[in-house]
Structure formats: C-alpha cells, structure tokens
Amino acid sequence: MPRVIRRYVRIVDAVNRRIGRIMMYGIFVMVAILLWSSFSKTFTLPSLWTLEIAQFAMVTYYILGGPYSIQLGSNVRMDLFYGEWSIRRKAQVDAITIFLLIFYLGVLLYGAIDSTTYSLQYWERSSTAWRPYMWPIKIIMCVGFFLMLLQAISEFFKDIATIKGLEL
User: Fold this and answer.
1) What's the distance, CA 103 to chain centroid?
2) pLDDT, tens digit (0-9, with 9 covering 90-100), for 83-105
3) Is the pLDDT assigned to residue 63 strictly greater than 90?
4) Angle at Cα 51 formed by Cα 109 and Cα 45, nearest 5°?
5) Which of 102, 134, 131, 103 is nearest to 117 (CA)?
6) Is the pLDDT of residue 47 over 90?
7) How confident is the model over 107-162, as pLDDT tens digits?
8) pLDDT for 79
C-alpha cells in the first residue's frame, strides 16, 4: 500500500480511537443527568432541561462513538454465513458492502450539513418548554458523520490490504 494510504489509516484510526475512548464515559454523563431528573422530581424541583440534555448526551455518545465501534468491528453483522468465512473472504465482502455504508454516510452528512446551516441561519430552537438552540447538537452530528465516513474509508483500505495479503 502507498505510504499516504498507510498514513491516512493510522491518523484516522488514532483520532477515532481517542474520541471513542473518551465517549465510552458518556454513559456516566447520561446516568448522572437521568439521576438528577429522578431526584429533582422526588423533591418537587422538576427540571425542564433534563430530558432534552439526556437526549443530546445520548446522540453525542452514539454519533461520536460510532467510528470507534466500526474500527473495533463491534457493529452488528449477520453472522449466519460471515462467521464461517476466511479472513480474506470477509475482507472481499466488506470491501464491496462498505460502498453502501459510504454512500449512506455521504447522504447523512449532506442532510446534516444542510440542517445545520438552516439551524445556524435561523437560530433554530427546540419546540419544548426549555427551548435550547439546536445548532450545537447538529454540529456534533456533522462531525460524527464525517468521522464515520473517514473511518469507513479507512476500513475499505484495510480490506483491500487484506485481500492483497499486505499489512497496513
């Protein structure tokens, strides 16, 4: 494999690994928010923001943790046949199907950028009583989709290397 591809794979994998490792602790943020929500309702201090912040935290957790999940190969697969295949055969199938993922992520990123642009242009707010601005979570979604797209391309390069019997 050319040096530029090896460097790309190393950089993308390193960035997504670091972000993914940080996002692993996002579950504790969500638990803390939901615990606060429960306690505040118990003591008649209901907070308007807890449900929506928990949703924003969950979106951040999943979207920014997704590329790391792809990198680890812990995404959902149909193992009916796949589990019995050789590593090379798996790489061949993955190299073909990764194009569907890349296309899907491209469409998601296009829509997310369009939605974020709208949100920034019109200072879009949520329709709930708390009414937070929507652009921060939409920017996080754009970043997450972009990182997932980069990781999908990295996985494609790894599959090609495996098919050719090379190491990255």
Assistant:
1) 15
2) 888 999 999 999 999 999 999 99
3) yes
4) 155
5) 134
6) no
7) 999 999 999 999 999 999 999 888 999 999 999 999 999 999 999 999 999 999 99
8) 76
CA dist., res. 133 & res. 35, Å (int): 24
Q: Which pair of tokens denotes residue 60?
A: 């951040």
With a CB cutoff of 8 Å and minimum separation 6, the contacts of 140 are 59, 60, 63, 64
Q: Is-contact 144 63, C-beta < 8 A? A: yes
Q: How many residues does the chain have?
A: 168
Say how many C-beta atoms besides its own lie within 10 A of residue 165's C-beta.
7
125/111 Cα distance (integer angstroms): 18
Q: Give residue 157's region: left, alpha or beta (phi > 0; psi -120 to 50).
A: alpha
Q: What is the DSSP letter of 168?
A: -
Backbone torsions φ then ψ of 115, nearest 5 degrees: -65, -40
Query: How far is it between the farthest Cα atoms of the chain?
Result: 64
Residue with tokens 């709930």: 128
What rounded mean pLDDT belongs to the chain? 92
Per the CB < 8 A criterion, the answer to whether 60 and 147 are in contact is: no
